Amino acid sequence: MDKMFVLNEDQRAILETVSRFARDEIAPRAARLDANRDPLDCFSWEIVEKAHELGIRTMTLGEEWGGLGADSLTTAMVVEELAKADLGVSVIMAQTFKVAQIMQRALSPEQQQRVLPGFASDPRGLLAIGNTEPGNASDRYLSIPVPFATGAERADGGWIVNGMKQFISNGNRASYYLVSVQTDRRKTMADGATCFFVERGRPGFSIGRVHDKMGERLANNAELVFQDCFIPDANVVGEVGKFGAVYARFLPASNSYAGASVLGVAVALYEKAVEWAKMRVQGGKPIIEHDGIRAQLAEMRMLIDASRSYIHRAAWLADHREQGWDATLSTLPKTMASQAAWKIATWCMEIHGGHGYMKELGVEKLVRDAAAFLHSDGVNRTLFLKAANDMFR
Ligand SMILES: Cc1cc2nc3c(=O)[nH]c(=O)nc-3n(C[C@H](O)[C@H](O)[C@H](O)COP(=O)(O)OP(=O)(O)OC[C@H]3O[C@@H](n4cnc5c(N)ncnc54)[C@H](O)[C@@H]3O)c2cc1C
User: Fold this and answer.
1) Which of 3, 87, 149, 326 is the most buried (most CB within 10 A)?
2) How high does pLDDT run on average in the chain?
3) Which parts of 28-130 are beta strand (E)?
4) Please, what's the b/e burial string for 337-371 (b: 16 or more CB within 10 A of its CB; e: otherwise)?
5) Nearest to 192, CA basis, from 145, 247, 256
6) Atom of ligand 1 nearest to the CA of 140
7) What pLDDT, on a 0 to 100 scale, did the predictor assign at position 293?
8) Cα of 220 to ligand 1 centre, how many Å?
9) Site to substitute for ligand 1 among 189, 254, 375, 386, most atoms within 8 A of C-beta
10) pLDDT 10s digits, 195-214
11) Atom number in ligand 1 closest to CA 169
């Protein structure tokens, strides 16, 4: 399908590499990995290492760190391309792309020297963001005045952190994490929480349960556990008490990447529906020749194209905020794309009839995957509320 923005030579080359990677390395493995019962067995280091070899894993790092310096629009396009082959792999990479972007913008030069060379050279280097807690989830999007349960007490030269995070993408696989911690218990998370970067293996920091998800299974999600974990002042990202500012200021494109992930699933569903409609004969002709089916395929196409345009506009404006960025672009594109994908999933199943419900055609996996982003990166209803608060504050 056409892209809304004109691609330059560099973007075209990156997308061609990613398409080949998705076709040759991800697609042939995805169904088999997804079918494993244990979520740990659904994850593939081979895929991550191949992404490293091709320069995909580090593509949002600047050239001075050995990356390609990909902008947010190119990154969103890449995320969609990966997700057409498998949603989980796109999420593994999207988290890494976006945390690498935040780190380059928000870490001090000294912190960057400590983190980025190691991340760039490690073929298994992945990144994660830990905000969600068992008792504290949508509240952070809605500025509800409560504190994070994961908190820190002052210690000599740093902080002693206790608490836990849950549902964290790449939680058990990452080498570096950005984590929100309440450093002033008397305040709310909006004015008393701090963003820290945490290295894997730091004493007192461990991985809890790995979640058994219904879809997006090639990515792992896990709990992060902090038990008297000392984190030095040198690991504070931005200013103490200003965790929200780090994400708001340095990563406006996060929602576009989430939207691009689920959009890739929508495209895969649409392509399956078209293929089946051309092949399946009922009523004396291929079902694509029946008006109801043809019209539904056009509606799918419209939802995909409109979602993509919204995502691309938001991703481009994230890098050119002076051109008309507004806060709803950090909530609504993913919401639209995930609603579209969910509709397309049910229609794709319907077009396949009973075959859509049988595992062997692969529609069932895509339906499970399409559900992931109704909740991930913020529940849609929560994001509508946040957008409304931004619009009518
Ligand atoms: C696949 C997946 C990957 C994820 N990856 C990460 C990650 O990498 N890092 C991370 O930090 N988190 C991650 N999350 C967490 C995700 O951001 C949270 O699930 C999400 O923010 C919602 O939290 P919750 O599931 O606890 O739902 P709740 O906040 O408990 O919401 C439950 C319901 O109540 C509604 N609701 C809540 N508050 C209000 C209100 N004030 N008014 C009206 N309705 C309300 C919500 O809209 C929702 O329908 C991930 C989640 C999933 C499913």
Assistant:
1) 87
2) 96
3) 127-130
4) bbbbbbbbbebbbebbeeebeeeebbbbbbbbbbb
5) 145
6) 21
7) 98
8) 17
9) 375
10) 999 999 999 999 999 999 99
11) 8
User: Is 377 within a domain?
Assistant: yes
Written as six digits, the tokens of 158 are 């740093």
Output the CA 374–ligand 1 centroid distance in Å.
Answer: 10
Do 134 and 162 share a structural domain? yes
Angle at Cα 243 formed by Cα 212 and Cα 331, nearest 5°? 65
pLDDT-derived band of residue 5, with 50, 70 and 90 as boundaries? low
State pLDDT tens for residues 52-101. Answer: 999 999 999 999 999 999 999 999 999 999 999 999 999 999 999 999 99
In a domain, residue 379? The reply is yes
Ligand 1 and 167: CB distance under 6 A = yes
Q: Among 125, 157, 189, where does a domain finish?
A: 125
Report the b/e string of 271-307 with b at 16+ CB within 10 A.
ebbbebbeeeeeeeeebbeeeebeebbeebeebbeeb
Name the one residue in this structure whose structure tokens are 């992945």: 126
Atom of ligand 1 nearest to the CA of 219: 1
Q: Are residues 328 and 387 in the same domain?
A: yes
Amino acid at 325: W
pLDDT digits (tens, 9 = 90+) for 296-320: 999 999 999 999 999 999 999 999 9
Instruction: Please tell me the total count of domains within the chain.
Output: 3
Segment (H or E) for 316: helix 291-319
136 lines ligand 1 (CB under 6 A): no
Question: Which structure tokens are listed for 47?
Answer: 């895929």
The answer to whether residue 2 scores a pLDDT higher than 60 is: no
Assess whether pLDDT exceeds 70 at residue 390. yes
